[in-house]
């Protein structure tokens, strides 16, 4: 018995050594992969959407936190003003966001990418060990997922939330597996925390697809594992895991309520494009069937800007799985037909095959019935586009299958006296044959393969053609694919037959990393952070604009592009337009749809309503007051519109359509302001006086007014039911005036008018999140403590 304990202790020590070597190697690989960013303090990691939209919103958030005002609930800088938390502005509640407060923002964002590349490997290692794979097999799983193309290549789009949410998938699967395996509550608590962190990323679609994968795994457990368990599938064996999973998801929703509830509340007050509904929307940005080849030949259809010639309107990522992970995944499937792996491991391999196949079919969107069936049966699918994102869970499944592939080889090595074949060669040939055939053709005749794909896989007259530069890249793809398969299978078979040491795995791992690295590195672009600095136009704006004044930088066609829609926000300047996924319904009605720039061009009277004081154009505008010029962009000062005023007359109308027509055609809102009648309320009367801004913060605006004649004060602030108005600390009703703005009635005399924004959904989410986290933490601690005591008593 003592000898057995020594053997187990030695194995445990060996496993820990492998773990620490792997974590150290993963950390070094992550730092070296991002070395052009890590070792140069003046650089940032480029991401198109990050610079286009994300970084500006995060700077606003960081500035408010550093100013001591806490989490801002309203952002005045985009579309004249919108709820902030509800917009999903970025991972503002995610743990790594703390880095935003500790270093320059562009550096903090870059370091979160570095950290999550490391964590993806660590979490995949944890997942593999959760399925009782040996440490060396867990290393294969960790390496396969750490640099898998679909996760890492989202660098180029700046989609950190998507990357973070996918990084957490193996941690969620590993926690669920341990919970189902042991029945211990702390693992279900860990699952709740992981799913809540996915909500905070805040990429809701990846979180949803991840939960579908988790639900499918639970279903596998209930239908396949439980009936074959020693207890014979008794009622409790079904009820306990089902209850644990359901409670974990409910707890995750409660914890994530801090982000989730404000977003759900916004849906009642906001709109998206009219085309963003129906099956065509839900199936958009699917994986075209031709691009299944990207899983193993990334340069056949390609995905790099300028070289992509497929069907998607925009593609900035790759689906490449890597030659070695794919080879070992197929090796695992073929090994399941032979003895060597345990019965439980063979069942899990079966699940991973079915789940991967379903995931790929779903990712193909309308090309298969799977996505259509999900669209009809599953909740929320109608609101989600880009079914190709299901490749996130699929990448996790393939990485785990790769770990099982090495497990099959190592387990067979330990089977004494068994000299039979390690795998089913028939299964291996059927599975890998088409992949290797394309690999051979790519290596021997890449130009012919490109031509064949163009002529046979795309309709006649397809407008895009493969770039000639893809020929050498595709040839390299084919050679590396064949080399990776040959190396992975050769070493696995040699190890299984005890021809070479298990240390030969090092060669396989190094090849896998190098192969994935060469593709991922294409999507890592490092730039000088100086491009974020203000030019003379932006400097003039930050020094000259007064609180409440807005700028319009229309995205007009011209030889010089205008500023990116959210560039002004980065410098704390309020824009009349901007870029966001949603528009508040009143503002959307005012500008005539989802494109505010077009609405302002069509209805110039709206500029005064929005207090647009400055105009930026990519060309000279005669007759306007020029303030500054930079890079072909010209800043003009417009006539000073009032931010708050007492209109001379008020038009009371019965419906929004009439209010909209009157407002759009009204050249002077100070002369006539339009108010929609409200049942049970006496329409306000016109007043007379003066009002000006005294204090202006995102969630609180204070005005001072000297009123000669009591009446309506119209304010150039976007209407939203979350705003409350106070006259000398006494709450008064807020009128919706000129379709999308606020108005309050003010009595005669000198008064202080205050607007304060209050989000009940945020307050509810905050307290529910805090209390649930405390509850989950207590349950996890008690469960872990009970587990530790049980382990000690068993020794």
Structural class: alpha+beta
Number of strands: 21
* SS strand fraction: 5-15%
The biggest beta sheet reads: 5 strands, antiparallel
Helix content: 40-55%
Number of helices: 28
| Morphology | globular
Mean pLDDT over the full residue set? 92
What's the assembly state of these chains? single chain
Rounded to the nearest angstrom, the distance between the terminal CA atoms is 12 Å
**Low-pLDDT runs:** 1-7
Strand order of the largest sheet: 14-15-21-17-18
Describe the structure in your own words:
The chain is of the alpha+beta class and 795 residues long. 51% of the residues lie in helices and 13% in strands. Strands 14-15-21-17-18 form a 5-stranded antiparallel beta sheet, with no helix packed on it. It has a 4-stranded mixed beta sheet with strand order 6-8-10-9. Helix 5 (135-146) packs antiparallel against helix 17, helix 9 (185-200) packs parallel to helix 11 (235-255) and helix 18 packs antiparallel against helix 20. The radius of gyration is 30 Å and the shape is globular. The N and C termini lie close together (12 Å).
In short:
The protein has about 800 residues and is α+β, with helices and mostly antiparallel strands. It is built from 28 helices and 21 strands. Helix 4 runs antiparallel to helix 5, helix 12 packs antiparallel against helix 28 and helix 14 packs across helix 17.
């Amino acid at each position: 018995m003592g000898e057995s304990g020594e053997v187990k202790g030695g194995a445990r020590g060996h496993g820990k050594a492998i773990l620490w070597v792997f974590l150290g190697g993963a950390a070094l690989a992550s730092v070296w992969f991002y070395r052009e960013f890590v070792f140069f303090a003046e650089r940032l990691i480029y991401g198109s959407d990050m610079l286009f939209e994300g970084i500006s919103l995060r700077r606003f958030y960081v500035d408010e936190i550093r100013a001591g005002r806490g989490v801002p609930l309203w952002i005045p800088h985009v579309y004249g003003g919108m709820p902030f938390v509800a917009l999903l502005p970025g991972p503002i509640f995610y743990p790594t966001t703390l880095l935003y407060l500790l270093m320059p923002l562009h550096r903090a964002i870059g370091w979160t990418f570095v950290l999550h590349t490391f964590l993806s490997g660590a979490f995949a290692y944890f997942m593999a060990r959760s399925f009782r794979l040996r440490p060396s097999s867990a290393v294969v799983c960790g390496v396969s997922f750490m640099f898998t193309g679909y996760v890492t290549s989202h660098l180029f789009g700046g989609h950190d939330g998507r990357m973070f949410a996918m990084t957490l998938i193996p941690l969620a699967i590993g926690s669920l597996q341990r919970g189902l395996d042991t029945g211990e509550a702390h693992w279900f608590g860990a699952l709740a925390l992981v799913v809540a962190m996915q909500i905070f990323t805040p990429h809701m679609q990846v979180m949803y697809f991840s939960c579908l994968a988790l639900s499918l795994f639970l279903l596998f457990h209930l239908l396949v594992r439980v009936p074959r368990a020693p207890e014979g599938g008794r009622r409790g064996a079904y009820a306990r895991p089902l209850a644990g999973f359901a409670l974990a998801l409910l707890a995750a929703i409660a914890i994530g309520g801090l982000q989730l509830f404000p977003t759900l509340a916004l849906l009642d007050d906001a709109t998206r494009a009219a085309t963003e509904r129906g099956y065509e929307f839900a199936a958009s940005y699917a994986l075209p069937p031709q691009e299944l080849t990207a899983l193993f030949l990334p340069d056949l259809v390609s995905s790099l800007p300028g070289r992509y010639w497929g069907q998607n309107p925009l593609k900035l990522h790759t689906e490449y799985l890597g030659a070695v992970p794919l080879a070992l995944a197929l090796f695992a499937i073929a090994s399941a037909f032979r003895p060597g792996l345990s019965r439980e491991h063979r069942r899990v391999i079966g699940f991973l095959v079915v789940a991967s196949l379903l995931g790929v079919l779903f990712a193909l969107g309308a090309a298969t019935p799977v996505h259509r069936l999900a669209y009809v049966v599953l909740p929320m699918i109608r609101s989600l586009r880009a079914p190709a994102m299901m490749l996130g869970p699929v990448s996790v499944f393939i990485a785990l299958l790769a770990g099982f592939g090495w497990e099959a080889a190592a387990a067979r090595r330990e089977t004494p006296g068994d000299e039979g074949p390690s795998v089913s060669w028939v299964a291996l040939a059927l599975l890998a044959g088409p992949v290797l055939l394309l690999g051979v053709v790519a290596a021997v005749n890449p130009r012919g393969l490109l031509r064949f794909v163009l002529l046979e896989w795309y309709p006649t007259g397809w407008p895009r053609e493969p770039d000639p530069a893809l020929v050498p890249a595709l040839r390299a793809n084919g050679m590396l694919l064949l080399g990776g398969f040959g190396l992975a299978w050769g070493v696995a078979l040699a190890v299984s037959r005890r021809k070479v040491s298990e240390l030969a795995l090092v060669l396989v791992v190094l090849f896998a990393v190098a192969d994935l690295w060469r593709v991922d590195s294409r999507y890592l672009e490092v730039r000088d952070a100086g491009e974020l600095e203000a030019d003379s136009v932006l400097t003039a704006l930050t020094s000259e604009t007064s609180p409440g004044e807005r700028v319009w930088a229309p995205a007009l066609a011209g030889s010089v592009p205008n500023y990116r829609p959210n560039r002004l926000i980065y410098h704390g300047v309020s824009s009349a337009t901007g870029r966001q996924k949603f528009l508040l319904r009143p503002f959307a009605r005012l500008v005539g749809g989802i494109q505010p720039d077009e609405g302002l061009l069509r209805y110039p009277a709206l500029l005064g309503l929005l207090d647009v004081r400055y105009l930026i154009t990519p060309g000279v505008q005669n007759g306007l007051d020029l303030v500054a010029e930079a890079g072909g962009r010209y800043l003009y000062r417009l006539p000073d519109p009032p931010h708050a005023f007492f209109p001379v007359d008020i038009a009371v109308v019965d419906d929004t359509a009439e209010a909209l027509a009157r407002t759009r055609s009204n050249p002077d809102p100070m002369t006539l302001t339009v108010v929609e009648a409200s049942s049970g309320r006496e329409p306000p009367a016109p007043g007379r006086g003066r009002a000006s801004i005294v204090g202006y913060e995102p969630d609180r605006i204070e005005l001072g007014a000297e009123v000669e004649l009591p009446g309506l004060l119209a304010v150039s602030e976007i209407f939203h039911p979350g705003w409350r108005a106070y006259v000398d600390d006494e709450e008064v009703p807020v009128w919706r005036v000129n379709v999308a703005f606020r108005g309050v009635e003010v009595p005669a005399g000198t008064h202080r008018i205050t607007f304060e924004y209050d989000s009940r959904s945020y307050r509810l989410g905050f307290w529910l999140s805090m209390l649930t986290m405390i509850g989950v933490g207590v349950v996890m601690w008690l469960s872990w403590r009970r587990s530790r005591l049980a382990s000690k008593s068993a020794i």
